[in-house]
Amino acid sequence: MSLSIEQLRAQARDAFARHGVPTRRLEHWKYTDVKRALAPLADNLLELPSDPMPVDALGDELSIAGLDAWRIVIADGVVLSLPDDPPQGVHVASLAGQLHAQPEQGVAALHFDEQAPLFNGLVALNAALAGDGIVIRLEDGVRLDKPLYLLHLSRGKAVHIRHRIQLGRHAEATVIEHYAGMDAGLSNVISRLHLAEGARLHHVRVQQEAVGRTHIGRVEAELERHSQFVSHSVALGASLSRVDIVAELRGPGADCRLDGLYLTNGRQHADHHTVIAHRAPHCRSREMYRGVLDGRSRAVFNGRVVVHEGAVKTDSAQSNANLLLSGRAEVDTKPELEIYNDDVKCAHGATIGQLDENQLFYLKSRGLAHEEARQLLTFAFADEVLTGIAVPALRRHIEHAAFSKLPHGEDIEGMLAGHDGTGEMA
Amino acid sequence: MTVLKPEQAASREYQAGFVTDIESDTLPPGLNEDVIRHISAKKDEPEWLLEWRLEAFRHWQTMSEPRWAAVDYPPIDYQAISYYSAPKSKEDGPKSLDEVDPKLLETYEKLGIPLREQEMLAGVAVDAVFDSVSVATTFREKLAEAGVIFCPISEAVREYPELVRQYLGSVVPTGDNFFAALNSAVFTDGSFVYIPKGVRCPMELSTYFRINASNTGQFERTLIIADEGAYVSYLEGCTAPQRDENQLHAAVVELVALDDAQIKYSTVQNWYPGDENGVGGIYNFVTKRADCRGKRSKVSWTQVETGSAITWKYPSCILRGDDSVGEFYSVALTKMHQQADTGTKMIHLGRNTRSTIVSKGIAAGYGQQSYRGLVRIGKDAHGARNYTQCDSLLIGDRCGAHTFPYVEVKNPSAVVEHEATTSKIGEDQLFYCRARGVPEEDAVNLIVNGFCKDVFNELPMEFAVEANRLMEVSLEGAVG
Amino acid sequence: MLKIENLHVRVDGKAILKGINLHVRAGEVHAIMGPNGSGKSTLSNVIAGRDGYEVSEGSIRFKGKDLLGMAPEERAWEGVFLAFQYPVEIPGVNNTYLLKAGVNARRRHLGLPELDAMDFMQRVKEKAKLVELDPSFLSRGVNEGFSGGEKKRNEIFQMAVLEPELALLDETDSGLDIDALRVVAGGVNRLRSPERAIVMVTHYQRLLDYIQPDIVHVLVDGRILKSGDKALALELEARGYDWVREEAGA
Rounded mean pLDDT of chain C? Predict the structure, then answer.
């Protein structure tokens, strides 16, 4: 059971040698050619990352403006600093520190999922090479007073990071993972989350890596009885991004919401694969992913809901909606349901289409120009995904980033400024 | 409280399970080029068709069986199957029904398919395929008057070689997939239909497939061509005797619709499903595809799948012509230990092409079923529309229902909507029916039939009655 | 005809009915009134045989037979009918077909010959007139896409076709406008007969203006606290339910 760090790394390297980088021949990589994206790095994928870049003022510059949070900067996969005085009951460490000081705990944090160990090359690569990340544990009943903000700045060729977040019983936290890579290369991040009974976690991923970079993310959440997990995954940057989010509902009454937004243009490629596994009775899951695609970009959504035997009274709903703004964009969506139980209520849906003509007409009849009306509706379509984000500075940041990606977004942002019902836009 | 016992689900007798005792001319099991040459010679085929078969066989040998479907079965020994079995009859085949072996006529009568024209429902012409050969085709003269060709494909190869050569394999190429390649190599019979320009086929055409011999596979091939402005409604039914071994059925159906043509293809599939312990039953691995080649052409697939141990089947439409329309209406019932992986592909290539998919799946007992569908909107398919509704009903806690829809869109003017639900049979609905005096089992049947109604409505009258009956009896004992 | 004695019912372990006694004779019309949550709907559901109700004590006998041991359909065959407060929609299941299946199952149970399609349609058309039901509703799916009023009217129509001996009307007046109420009540009144008993469960006395009850019961907190004639209903309308509670407590 307890491997040494050397054994674990060796196993992972073997697994990578076996699997290699996923190819399109694999069902779950059918629409995403990550092998091609990583071709420039192919020869040195197993090299250890170089020293971290100097961050200096960059950290402040790229941080989410006005966000009151516990900020931790991770540069080229290295944790630069930890909060000096975290609240009582909150234990924050770096993976590198733990591997050094408490190797057993470090190995535990790095340990792979026993159900599907090292099942693909990128997961194996991460296990082989991830040298750092955040290890955070909240004791029972502890409520983190402000969000934990993990700012990832990456300039190096290949960066592998492993985070581990554990919430004790009835603990509550908001964790923001912000990715602001600045160069071509690979970011490969795995976050493993555990929610004990009654715990509540809001997990937000904001991916704004530089064009040219490949972003691979994996979030594995385990939900015990009556815990609540809310996930937002926002994909704005990178040339190719692939994020897998897996929620395991293991205890009765667990509740999970997975929301996501992808805005792509140019030749960007954004892929989300989500799995919601209902393994216990009386659990509920909701999922809403939306995408707006422009240019020659391509987006992939694969949402899988599995209801296992015994997970009675499951209530699950999932939707994926897409707007194509350009004749050269492409979307591939696959909302899957797998059900091994009769006492369930499951629904899913996917749509691809244009803006609602009635809504367009309504706005125009109120005096908006055609283009304005289109932009406004496009923004509203995307913004609906963000309604669950209760941290105003964070929402503002994402909205601003979204505006700047939409055609003529600045005009709309100006138009909405100060007129937004929440008063957050001013 | 409704208690659903999986082992009881649908333990009704399979009514088509008898065996006809008839002398057959059957090839010994095994598959090689000599077997194919033998089949081709038996059929008196031209050289090009033999070459076509051999090419398919050579390709097949390089392929491996698909394993991506959510079905589970032991490996098939393709050398243990006999690839040709025909009832022994007069040297040159029956000239009329009077020359058909009375035992065969009796078989079809027992199945409710009388072949004597005067006894039939008016307006349905039947081609009866027994094991590897067509034994009778009715109403041929009447159809010939309208210019409609309806005959066994083996005969069409001899009588209309140009038509067959032009279209055979043009929708499902020989190397399309493992089972299609196998079929191309060894197909023995099937129906051929040609509806000439502007002709509305004066009656429903129907083929009735029957597997009788043991250890044989059935590999029929159906080719239907609707020329410009033509219309045809075609029905297909299938049964097989009750046997402990699994038998392979690997058919290919190709439909071609030219400008303004319409083909309505309906199937009631009731191959032997195996017994309540999952022993025996047909492996139904079928490739069905329509090419809507012409402008404003339309193809509707309607299927009611209640039989077979395993069903692997995706009747598809390639919507090539501008303004062409594809439809897929399906009811699939899996009970006992049946498995079905079925759905459709709608490939939109032309402008303003439209497709509708309505799939209703019912899983009971230990039944497992999957809807697997692909909607692809090509780059040039401006204004394409698809609507998909995919519902599953679960009866009992040992069954499973799964949905795997693939949606690929490359054109911004497309509108694609996919909706799916899965739920158990409604307790409130059951109670309402029972409070009106309907016994519980009947209430389940009522609700299931209501659930399937949108699809049954698409079936021709004769089949709708049959379909209702199959669904009803199949669920007997589903509720204990 | 209906004899309920000391009926105690629990739902999810919580006591809802706490010792109901009710005797209904053929030809009588009873009204059971009570505030929300008093157990009115529980009572009608238990009589009709819905799952999820635990009878911890007491009995319900109908024409001398133990009703609690019967499946819902057996109760229907014996002549019990429940007009639902919230009739469920059953997509694709033809309204007339459902009734025909129900009527003939009952006839088989009673040892009577089944009605053929012609006779049955005759009967259905007559009864549809009785409740002014548009004939197009006959061929539609059960309650599928019906408005609230149409559903209630369909319930009374079903009652007319099924010809029960005991009809339970659960909040039949709720959600009806005055015209619909008049039609529904007219339908019920025409079904009154010396052989048939009717039990109306209702929140308001409005319905009782149209269907005159012989006996009015007040159901509060799972018990029948008071019974009387029509005047009691008017008094409840004027004074509410608290005084009954106080009187019973005193």
Answer: 90
